[in-house]
Amino acid sequence: MGVSASAISRVTGVEVTPKNFNKGNASMLPQRLVIVGQGNDDAVYSLDKYECDGSAASVAERFGYGSPLHLAAKQLFPTAGSMATFPVTILPVKAGDNFIAAKGSLTLTGEAASAASRITITVGGLDILVTVAKGEELSAINQEIVRVINAESDRCVTASLVPGSEDNPDVIELTARWSGSLGNRIGLSVTGDIPGTAITVAPFADGAGVPDVDEALAKTGEIWETFILDTFDYKDGENPSALLDVYEEWGEGAWDVLAKRGALVAHGCTDDYATRTAITDSRPTDRINFLIESVGAPELPFVVGARGLLDILTTADKNPAQNYKGTLKGIKRGSDAAQESYVVRNQAVMKGASTNIPNGSVAELNDVVTFYHPTSAGKYPAWRYVVDAVKLMNIVYNLRLIAESDEVKGAPLVPDSQATTNPTAVQPKMFKTWFANLAVSLGEAALISDVEFTIENLEVKIDTENSKRINYIFPVKVSGNVEVISGDVYFGQYLG
Fold first, then answer.
1. Which domains does the chain have, with CATH numbers?
2. Alpha helices by DSSP H, 300-385
3. Which residues contact 476 (CB under 8 A, 6 or more apart)?
4. 379 confidence band (pLDDT: 50, 70, 90)
5. For the chain, what is the total number of helices (H) and then of strands (E)?
6. Angstrom distance (rounded) from CA 57 to CA 65
7. H-helix or E-strand containing 216?
8. Closest to 187 measured CA to CA, from 306, 307, 332
9. pLDDT at 480 over 90
């Protein structure tokens, strides 16, 4: 009221009161990443969650250089190039008492080097160059290999020389810095040769144990963590589904109507079509777990996953409607022979498995999809693409902003037909206006299509049995993304 009701003398008054008529303008959901993983066996660390400070070195100091947590952090916070601009939280776990560290080995046999040479030892995707002089004895070559491997603190393994006997040569034994079956995924290969000497490679094996992640996940609390990176092998253990079940249950809880903070769980993957689809095809209703694929890559799978999430979360922060097409920079892709044809990739997507395509010497994200592919959902299931889940997260986030705003909390609620002068009162029609504004804003951000459909079909009502309750329906058609382009070219001959 501009003028007091007690005023008698002629006067004109105008009161200016700010009102948010644009309430409902879309805001983009800030992305957050959680890493679940181990430190090194010799590292002493708390199981409290740790907020990264943007430095991989600080992660290494806490959990050990070359640990899964450190190697993942190196992809998110590289010393050169773009780094994560979103918050990264670590939920650490430890190996059990009965866990065993994986081991691999190199065995040199023959005579002294007959010529100067160089070999490249690749461990966990990292190349280690060893130079050998002409005439160098095997014992000296072994010692040099051990020295070079141990020279860098961020290797995922340590090397030691196991003395042989008169009948058996010395063995260079490589041991994962952490215990557990994950160490079996450490790749080991040698490129090049030493004239006069043979090198036998025994791949990493015999690592045992998959940590329990339940307690770690419980520490996410009420913070909206949009993505989790699982650093373990998604198909490991006596029951390969056990770990995935835990993540699915946690993720479904996050999507629950009362939690209202949807999340997804990523697993790095370097497996071929048959191996990964054997798991994904057995979980057709799992809309939480997904793979980040670089088929045949020599890197540890979670390293691939971390690098892929750097692109996914960066894109989701800036433009959540955009699907993911980034390259896994700094990570060698698998061989040409390992790459999959279109037919294979198409089948993989139908079975809930992500794919990649080669882009020069690196892999490029191609199809980033959840495991979700129930027969009942038809050819195009709603929860297939990770990008569509991100769009829905943003829609839910904005609906929460409206419902949980100070203007709404505890406000008097009256029907549209009732006149009121109470400045804090709200009515269903006000919600409808806010939701309509939101629909327009979501459409402008290309998160939804057919804005008119949403506005025309909005429903907001006071509950018929509870006067303190608002019920609404906010129907949306999530926008598509360009994935398939089909064209026809017609041609004929010029006959004059």
1. 1-23+414-496 (no CATH), 33-94+211-390 (no CATH), 103-205 (3.90.1160)
2. 301-318, 342-350
3. 395, 439, 442, 448, 454
4. confident
5. 11, 19
6. 8
7. helix 214-218
8. 332
9. yes
